[in-house]
């Protein structure tokens, strides 16, 4: 009894109807539906007459609905059934962007339609799974997010053919830290080849890939990428200027490798965006150019072309305070300057950058700053939290 009951002047109508409006996208309908599918999807005369009535008298769901009492506004299955049967053929895809308890998805599934839905409240996940009678629902991954997921689960759910540039800083089998420890080399390379296999279908035909690792691991990774028909472009040596070696019987290790590969010959490489300053700025004073072997060479104000040896101090040296190395929650974050170089050379604004082992989110943070889209995964809680803060709050 709402309104001003029992006195005038305000009443509320008792709500016993809701409206469903139907819109059809412009353009020609798809008439290429096969005979068999058409037959399977056909309605009886009785159904046709009933469903095309303008008023549908359908009661609200009751206790027989598995979500009864768990969700406040369950859609009656009969309504969805009529809409799905009137507007789709078997095998068509039904989208429910506000899935709630999952009624639309359930009915679409039962009627042999494909289905996809989105629900913002995680606590409805169990209600949806119960209604659909499934153990798990696959997350729908969207861009501009880092997912707290294991790399394999993340890749299983990532859309095929969706990535323009992949920058991958995976485990190296080097550090004495849980996520970088493998039983032996075989286990490490099995892990590495497994994520490479799952990654390849996610790349667009025009995509580029950069993979970090030690030079000796990269020798194997490179051979594997070639075997998988990816195209070798550069073996980049990162001179870290940060050499450290406890082993007195070999040279001090002062480099890492970055493998640069592409999927095809149709890819972006903008070398002008990643020029580096000349060693001497004297050259820039020669506006008329410098005569060299009878040819006039005019210096580029943005500097020389970037080579495949990158001299960039490691992050821990760049973030020193008064000469002292600062404690970072992550043992091996990559310098932003280096990631920016890859993104500028190998992608355009608006493209999607994949940050597979996100760590503290360096690649995604730089991608966002350079107006690219990004998507990534990180399994460690602490690094994940740091990445999210860095990308979205700083
Ligand atoms: C070399 S670090 C990446 C550092 C990152 N580039 C940065 O700048 O912060 C590799 C990351 O991979 C994560 N990792 C390792 N195994 C993983 C797995 N199976 N799934 C998802 N992430 C994983 C580790 O937690 C670690 O943070």
How does this model look, in words?
There is one protein chain. This protein has 394 residues and is an alpha/beta fold. The protein contains twelve helices and twelve strands. The chain has three domains: 42-132, Vaccinia Virus protein VP39 (Rossmann fold), CATH 3.40.50; 145-268 and 308-393, Rossmann fold (3-Layer(aba) Sandwich), CATH 3.40.50.150; 274-307, no CATH class. Strand 1 (93-96), helix 4 and strand 2 form a beta-alpha-beta unit. The radius of gyration is 29 Å and the shape is elongated. The structure holds S-adenosylmethionine (SAM).
**Mass-distribution shape:** elongated
Structure ligands:
S-adenosylmethionine
- The helix content is 25-40%
Q: Could you tell me the mean pLDDT?
A: 92
What Rg, in angstroms, do the CA atoms define? 29 Å
CATH topology of the largest domain, by name, is Rossmann fold
Care to count the β-strands?
A: 12
What is the number of domains?
A: 3
Q: How far apart, in Å, are the first and last alpha carbons?
A: 51 Å
SSE layout and pairings?
Blueprint: H1 35-40, H2 45-51, H3 77-87, E1 93-96, H4 103-110, E2 114-117, H5 125-132, E3 145-147, H6 151-157, E4 163-168, H7 185-199, E5 203-213, H8 215-227, E6 231-239, E7 255-262, E8 290-292, E9 295-297, E10 309-311, H9 315-318, H10 336-346, E11 352-355, H11 362-369, E12 373-377, H12 381-393
Parallel strand pairs: 1-2, 3-12, 4-5, 4-11, 6-10, 11-12
Antiparallel strand pairs: 5-7, 6-7, 8-9
Which short descriptors sum up this protein?
394 residues; alpha/beta; Rossmann fold; two-stranded parallel sheet; 12 helices; binds S-adenosylmethionine
């Amino acid at each position: 009894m709402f309104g001003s009951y029992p006195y005038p002047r305000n009443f509320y109508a008792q709500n016993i109807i809701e409206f469903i409006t139907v819109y059809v996208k412009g353009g020609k309908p798809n008439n290429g539906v096969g005979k068999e599918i058409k037959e399977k999807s056909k309605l009886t005369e009785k159904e046709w007459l009933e469903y095309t009535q303008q008023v549908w008298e359908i009661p609200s769901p009751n206790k027989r609905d598995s979500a009864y009492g768990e969700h406040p506004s369950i859609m009656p299955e009969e309504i969805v059934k009529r809409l799905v049967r009137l507007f789709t053929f078997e095998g068509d895809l039904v989208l429910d962007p506000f899935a709630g308890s999952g009624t639309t998805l359930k009915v679409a599934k039962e009627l042999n339609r494909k289905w996809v839905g989105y629900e913002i409240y995680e606590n409805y996940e169990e209600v949806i799974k119960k209604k659909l009678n499934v153990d798990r629902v696959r997350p729908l991954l969207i861009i501009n997010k880092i997912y707290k997921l294991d790399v394999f689960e993340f890749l299983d759910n990532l859309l095929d053919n969706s990535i323009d540039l992949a920058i991958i800083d995976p485990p190296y089998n080097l550090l004495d830290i849980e996520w970088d420890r493998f039983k032996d080399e075989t286990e490490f390379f099995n892990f590495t080849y497994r994520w490479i296999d799952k990654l390849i279908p996610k790349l667009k035909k025009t995509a580029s890939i950069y993979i970090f690792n030690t030079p000796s691991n990269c020798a194997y990774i490179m051979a594997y990428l070639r075997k998988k028909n990816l195209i070798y472009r550069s073996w980049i040596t990162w001179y870290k200027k940060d050499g450290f070696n406890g082993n007195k019987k070999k040279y001090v290790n002062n480099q890492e490798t970055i493998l640069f590969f592409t999927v095809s010959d149709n890819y972006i490489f903008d070398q002008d965006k990643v020029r580096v300053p000349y060693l001497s700025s004297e050259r820039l004073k020669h506006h008329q150019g410098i005569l060299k072997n009878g040819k006039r060479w005019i210096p580029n104000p943005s500097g020389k072309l970037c080579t495949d040896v990158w001299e960039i101090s490691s992050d821990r040296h760049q973030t020193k305070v008064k000469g002292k190395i600062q404690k970072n929650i992550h043992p091996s974050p990559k310098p932003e300057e280096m990631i920016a170089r890859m993104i500028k050379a190998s992608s355009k604004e608006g493209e999607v950058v994949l940050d597979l082992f996100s760590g503290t989110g360096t690649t995604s943070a730089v991608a966002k700053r350079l107006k690219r889209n990004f998507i990534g995964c990180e399994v460690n809680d602490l690094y994940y939290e740091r990445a999210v803060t860095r990308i979205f709050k700083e």
